[in-house]
Amino acid sequence: MGAYDNLNEMQLDVMREVGNIGAGNACTALSVLLGTVVDMSVPSVKLLGFDDTSEYLGGNDRPIIGIKVDVTDDLTGMMFHMVNKDFAERIINTFYAKQLEDLSNVDEMDSSVLSEMANITSGAYANSLATLTSLVVNIGPPQQHLSTVGEVLKIPHAAYSQPGDKILIIDEKFIIGDEQITSHMLLILESESLMKLFDRLGVQA
What's the pLDDT tens digit per position in 13-53? Predict the structure, then answer.
């Protein structure tokens, strides 16, 4: 794909702003889903290569639930929620009490809760993109992959990657009560969609 390889500073700023706006809307959506106040510290938005992304997320062998949500219609690509044990446990415990020894303890009901979280927050990101661009941006159903960071990253790598490709990573630091939990959202747009995004925002490609 090579979509993020040669972005200029203005284009990088646009991608960071997309991440910031999407994260803010995702926070609001999560608050509605959980029925409680959810705050967010300023998200960190980075563009990293696949190898650096793996290291940033804890290494290839770190257990993770990767929840894939396709981006469809006028923009195409995919979003990945990279859900760690602490984040999964906190979201699940908003609805019912459960202690997770590790991610292998996630059952069908837990998966349903996490899929709904991914669906509503991905929808918030999609709505942000649609509002910013006046394009039609929809999402597919969440698909969960309980595996390791390295294995989950093979999915977007196989779909889009050429050597040097980068991934937009949004660190979502949510504050629920006196707890702060961190999730990572990965956004990968196809080259044509990325250029369409820049064109709609008046940024030179």
Answer: 777 788 788 888 888 888 888 888 888 887 788 888 888 99
The CA distance from 6 to 124, in Å, is 28
Bridge partner list, 176: 38, 179
Distance, CA of 167 to CA of 62 (rounded, Å): 18
Cα distance between residue 59 and residue 156, in whole Å: 17
CA distances in angstroms from 153 to 14, 17, 59, 102, 196, listed in the order given: 24, 24, 11, 20, 25
Q: State the pairing for strand pair 166-176/137-139.
A: unpaired
**Cα–Cα dist 89/110, whole Å:** 9
Query: How far from the centroid of its chain's Cα atoms is residue 147's Cα?
Result: 17
Task: Confirm whether pTM is higher than 0.85.
Answer: yes
Residue type, 118: A
